[in-house]
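Reminder to self: tokens first, then the designed residues, so the page reads top to bottom the way the pipeline ran.
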């Protein structure tokens, strides 16, 4: 096969080390043959700078690395300023079974690069990656808040409080007032029901029956107090992230994206963080949908059509688009 990239490097990235293989044209009469060198570096910033210097010494123009957990991120960040860097999907790098080592992996990746047999994954520019970190952390914190409320519901059920049998939510302004009263030593269901607010006041008779309890302050109180403090901390964390994300995004662009049916501010921020601002990297709307893995797959052989289920894709984007 013809060589597409004359001077390239393949990196096998791990937590503490990076194995780099360089392939360049041979010297003298053997220029048609490929010269190859492999070297191992540490994963610290200083070692990665040395890796960059070593690659520059060979005149490398393209560096490829496998998407390994989060370990590729510092390597990519250091080298992207000096080289064209490709992040390669691990599924596209399968080698012959029985031939597996760090050195072999780096050489195999380098050979695939030079022959043009792999394609780069989408990696947005640094400012979008920073925004992505914020939106993903916010989503994680919101999910943790939901789990904390579910734990709170389990404690209330254990105490015999059937609040969700009457109210639509475990945690609301009314529920918070009732929980604070329980922590303060109020156990009379009639007094607790009177703390209901808004439309829930129309259900005070049902609430009185549902709030009859065996709430033990020494046991259930400790659990509820801890969960409420955890929920408050998560609320504060999400509010802080909301402010940081709002400062990092263009208000006019958010308003424009919010004109899409079903898209509001938070979803618009996730769309920007996951897809970036430059849509030309995808080529077309169809390719963007395929990259997001929200379209059916194609699995046909002869006249037989097999399951064309969707791929996993980007779970953060997929979650936002399927809400």
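Designed residues (323 positions):
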């Amino acid at each position: 096969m013809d060589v597409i990239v004359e001077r390239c490097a393949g990196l096998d990235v791990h937590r503490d080390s990076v194995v780099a293989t360089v392939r360049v044209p041979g010297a003298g009469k053997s220029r048609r043959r490929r010269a190859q060198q492999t070297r191992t570096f540490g994963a610290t910033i200083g070692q990665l700078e040395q890796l960059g210097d070593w690659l520059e010494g060979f005149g490398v123009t393209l560096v490829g690395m496998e998407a390994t957990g989060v370990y590729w991120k510092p390597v990519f960040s250091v080298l992207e300023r000096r080289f064209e860097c490709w992040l390669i999907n691990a599924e596209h790098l399968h080698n012959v079974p029985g031939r597996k080592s760090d050195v072999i992996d780096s050489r195999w990746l380098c050979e695939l690069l030079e022959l043009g047999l792999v394609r780069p994954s989408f990696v947005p520019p640094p400012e979008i990656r920073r925004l992505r970190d914020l939106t993903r952390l916010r989503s994680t914190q919101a999910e943790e808040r939901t789990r904390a409320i579910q734990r709170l519901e389990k404690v209330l059920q254990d105490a015999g409080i059937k609040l969700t049998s009457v109210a639509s939510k475990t945690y609301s302004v009314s529920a918070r007032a009732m929980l604070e009263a329980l922590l303060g030593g109020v156990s009379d269901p009639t007094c607790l029901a009177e703390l209901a607010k808004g439309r829930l006041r129309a259900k005070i008779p049902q609430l009185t029956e549902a709030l009859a309890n065996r709430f033990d302050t020494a046991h259930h109180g400790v659990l509820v107090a801890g969960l409420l403090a955890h929920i408050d901390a998560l609320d504060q964390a999400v509010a802080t992230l909301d402010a940081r994300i709002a400062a990092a995004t263009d208000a006019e662009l958010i308003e424009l994206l919010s004109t899409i049916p079903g898209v509001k501010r938070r979803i618009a921020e996730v769309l920007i963080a996951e897809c970036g601002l430059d849509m030309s990297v995808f080529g077309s709307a169809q390719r963007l949908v395929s990259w997001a893995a929200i379209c059916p797959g194609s699995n046909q052989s002869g006249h037989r059509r097999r399951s064309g289920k969707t791929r996993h894709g980007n779970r953060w984007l997929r979650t936002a688009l399927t809400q």
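The chain is about 45% helix and 10% strand.
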